[in-house]
Each structure stands twice: as C-alpha cells, then as structure tokens.
C-alpha cells in the first residue's frame, strides 16, 4: 500500500524527484553478476506519468461497464482474450482485494469522486473477511482495499475492520518458528507442518499498520520476527530466495525448501525475488532497522543483475530456453513499486538515482506497446505468469500486476509533484 514516503533529508527527495522529471528510460543490457547501469544507455523519450495514468483510467472505464457483479472480482484475462475473467470473492481467494485497491489508487491519482464511490462499493462487500484465520492471504485481501480506503479515501471507519484483520493474521504466528503460517496443510497436503512462503512478507504491512493505529503492540513484534526469520532461512547465499519453507512446528527447524510456482525447488523464481525486494523495503520503512535496508539492497542488486534488456523478467530465471520462456509483468510491477520506495530510503545519492532510474525504466517498458493492454484488452498490463508449473495463468493479464503497476504510478506521481 502507498504509505507516506519518509525521507531523512529533503535534498534527497529533491534529487530523486529531479531524476524522475528528466530521466531517459532506455533499457540497459544485462550482464550476469553485474548490476544495470541505466545511465550508460542512449537516451529515449522520458517516461510520461500523466499519459500512463490516462491509459489506466481509460481501461478502468471499460472494466466498470463489464464487471458489475459485486460478488465477484476480476482475476485474469486469458491470452488473446479482451475481457476479465471474474471469480467469486471467496474466503480462500487471495486476489479479492486488488481490484478495489486499484480503484482507490485511481481516485488518489484523479481526484474524481466517481472512482471513490466505485472503490467503496467494491471494498465493503467483503467486510466479513476480517475474521479469516485459515491462511495468511487476509493481508492481501484486506489491506489493498480497506487500507487504501483508510489512507487515500479518508474512510476512518475502516480502522476497526483493519485491526480485526490484523488480529486474524497474527493468530497464525508460531513463536517456536518465528513466522506466520502461510498456508493450511489441508489445502496444501504436500507439507505436513508449518508452511511459510516468501509472498508472506507483504502481509506484514497490515501488522505494522495496526500496531501504529491502536492495535496490539505484539503485532509489531510478530512482523519483525517474521522478517528476521525469513531473512535467515528463506534466502540463498546469492540473495535469491526459495518459495516455500516447511518448518518443524515444535522446534522451528527448517525441514524442506521447495517451490510451488517456480520452475524448480532450487530455481530463482522472479516473483519470489519481487516479494522480497518490496517486502524488505517496507519493513525498513516501518522499523528503521538498518539490517532490513541492507538486505533489501542486496536482493535488489541481485535481481537487477538477472534482468533481460527490457527490464521485465522471465517468470523464472532458471527456466530452460529463456528466450522462449514467458515473462512475468507482475514481478516487474511489484519491483518497480518497491524500488520507488527503496530509492527514497537509501542515503547514497548514487544508489538513489540507480534505483529510481531502474524503476522508471521498468514502468516505461510495462507501458510500452509490448506489455500494455491498451487497445488489446481491458487490463493495464499483459504478459504475466501466475503459476506455470500448475498449468494455469500462463502469459495472461493478472489483477495484481495491474495493482502494483498503478501503485507504482501513484508513488512516482507523489514524488514528482513534491518538488
């Protein structure tokens, strides 16, 4: 979610904003084990934030005419299709909150009451989800919707709903392990004990928010413990991550390191790295603990070293025959949003500029003819990969790709207008 960006020094903010205003956004070449240096490339046209937002609004205008059943939400658009496939707002459906979250961001970017009204209508239909304790996805389901409604829409009455949601999420914390249990064993029987996935890093934001807004102080401790344990166990020596860890529920010992959505158990799944970059940047913002900033930087630099020329990753960096493999625009959107925030948190001005340039280059690529849904479908973005090993959501439009894309635009817009 888009929290107020905290800069220690206003001069740093000015530097970042000026970089955005004048940046040339050609994509750098990729060298394994070497970070991109975007400034080395020949300049192209600067990224037009206003035009990108205009396209998003145009796409949403089409969507609201077609997506009218309040008991469902848009989830994906299949390859070569134009309209959103809608799925029920079920208690086990982790993507329920992204569409209302998108509407809140469009309200924030446009100031139009129309989008606020749409967002309210779409948010309030699943208030009862605040008591979900069966999985960790309550964070993804509630915070983009109710959190953005509180912060961007001024809906202070959402506070108690968010606090209840945080308590539900915290109920899955195992102090013997030091993490929140992500999935139930009934739904994921391959694993018999305590399951934690890298995606869970983003749900910690709900706990941090709740701790700051009158919730149990224990929420903060749980979030920090989860981040520290994940940092210790979920990442390899090269700062790439596993997807799924199974812990002994009683001792906290790591039993297995696996994947469900990556190419293989030991492969470098792109969206897993994206969750890490975004997650640890957010945790540093909330804690000010330098270990999390240092870790976010290390994950980021590794990720940047693996990217292809257009800054949009293959769905897994270790999948065979990479030039023929599908991309994952959702990972690029998540990283772009995370890097915009991370660029405001680092002290070194050269690093600030590197990360901001990388983020804007990602957004320019996502907004290009190759990846934009404009004129082809009702989505903002095309070419995301949700779960190729499971045989679904392969080279499609995904609602969470659109969510993190518009969040990145909102964050970037705030930086440029604060100059």
From TrEMBL:
InterPro entries on file: 6-hairpin_glycosidase_sf, 6hp_glycosidase-like_sf, UG_Glycosaminoglycan_Hydrolase
Keyword check for NADP: no
GO terms for biological process, alphabetical: polysaccharide catabolic process
A GO term for molecular function: chondroitin hydrolase activity
Record carries keyword Manganese: no
Keyword list, A-Z: Hydrolase
Family membership: Belongs to the glycosyl hydrolase 88 family.
Protein name: Glucuronyl hydrolase
